[in-house]
């Protein structure tokens, strides 16, 4: 074989391998950018700024973050808060000040509300890239006079709207025959946290998907309605839903599910005809799932905290190293019920605390 033919064959093989490699990539990202925040620190530390490390969610988040850091030769420093910290933002700002003084290379954070603009401006000046998990700050950097410095290079999140829709699909399958048989209007309730953008997305996804499924069935279309209540007084919310003979309820947050599970356990007879589903897990939800002597809890949608942490640290490393960064990554939530608890625990998707 002459040299030209051999060279052509090599090029064809390389091209084929490139194509197959591209086909195998995970297409999680919605947008890919090359960030200007490439870092100046010579250190190899990434700070994970979160909340109470004892919660199952943060344990799984930290585990994923640590494994990504280890893979790329970095050390993860977890900077959490005390369990009953009243002002999370103030605690986060204090942690971020330490990040700067300790010469950390990057930051992964789940922000809460607003008030981060000044400290984020300092991180920007120090060229310390920030990756946010599951929540954007409420600071509008473009409108804060004299401060348009935003060091955030990537957002890794659960699609809350899709998660709410997922719950709607499961709950609809559970109650659709009951709706058809119902003599009066079948009421579905939603209980969501006050002033929570993420819970509002979950509720919106749930209502839109449930309505879509119900309206597509001529036997159901005009036989249901959905009522939304806030968390501000869970006892009142659930009682008010019970008074209008609600038959199914979607709960948007585990803190609400804990309170509701206590109520339905204490007054099993009162709530025995209501079917519930929820978001995320915890000891009370898992116990409720197995309790046949009270209102039925069919399961819930669990965030993949492990992969949220892993992907966030990975994007932070890429930014530090000047590589391409996925500016948005959505991590799929997973459904859990009594049939798959062991597998979900094994995969770090549900937790008991």
Describe this structure in words.
By secondary structure, this protein is of the alpha/beta class. It has 2 domains: 26-158 and 304-332, Rossmann fold; 160-302, Response regulator (Rossmann fold). The chain has helices at residues 3-23, 56-71, 88-101, 117-125, 160-181, 197-215, 234-243, 254-266, 268-271, 283-290, 305-320, 341-346; strands at 29-34, 45-49, 75-79, 106-109, 130-133, 152-158, 186-192, 224-230, 246-251, 275-279, 296-302, 324-331, 334-336. The protein has a 7-stranded mixed sheet, sandwiched between helices. The chain has a 6-stranded mixed sheet with strand order 8-7-9-10-11-13, with helices on both faces.
- Strand arrangement in the largest pleated sheet: 1-12-6-5-4-2-3
Euclidean distance between termini CA atoms: 67 Å
Which sequence of SSEs, written as H and E, runs from N to C? HEEHEHEHEEHEHEHEHHEHEHEEH
Q: What would CATH call the class of the largest domain?
A: Alpha Beta
Q: Per the principal axes of the C-alpha atoms, what is the gross shape?
A: elongated
- The CATH architecture term of the largest domain is 3-Layer(aba) Sandwich
Strand-residue fraction?
15-25%
Total DSSP E strands: 13
Instruction: Round the Cα radius of gyration to an integer and report it.
Output: 24 Å
Oligomer: single chain
Could you give me the name of the CATH homologous superfamily of the largest domain?
Response regulator
